[in-house]
Design a protein that fits this description.
single chain; alpha+beta; six-stranded antiparallel β-sheet; globular
Length: 126
């Protein structure tokens, strides 16, 4: 059985996946990494320098994905009132942290919730 990727590898895989989506760019407001589309954040990656536990924050509007993300150990609605709009903070550390593939799926859902229809059509090959 292959060893699961560590939290830094998962974070980097999610970052690379998110940046591969149409129109996605990385910015560093507040000294933290965020991935944006159309000047709006769809993935918060936080800092990767070891000063804070690794995690991601994503907007999950689809009820099943939102509920599934909240079952991850330590996951919670995002702070600053973002949780009321479907944002979920998911830790990447710990033995039961979600695998990279699942977090990438959530990143795509977050992108679809934020991106303009034109870029979603591009993603879908239209």
């Amino acid at each position: 059985m292959a060893k699961a990727a560590g939290p830094a590898a998962v974070r980097e895989r999610v970052r690379a996946f998110a940046l591969g989506l149409p129109g996605a760019v990385e910015e560093f407001p507040w000294g933290e990494s965020v991935i944006k589309v159309n000047k709006k954040v769809f993935v918060f990656l936080g800092v990767g320098d070891g000063s804070h536990p690794l995690g991601v924050t994503l907007k999950l509007k689809e009820p099943e994905a939102h509920a599934h993300a909240l079952t991850s150990p330590g996951a919670k609605p995002a702070g600053y009132g973002l949780g009321r709009s479907g944002w979920v903070q998911v830790p990447l550390e710990g033995k039961d942290a979600p695998p990279a593939d699942l977090v990438c799926d959530w990143a795509e859902e977050s992108y679809r919730a934020i991106a303009p229809k034109k870029l979603i059509a591009e993603l879908d090959g239209g």
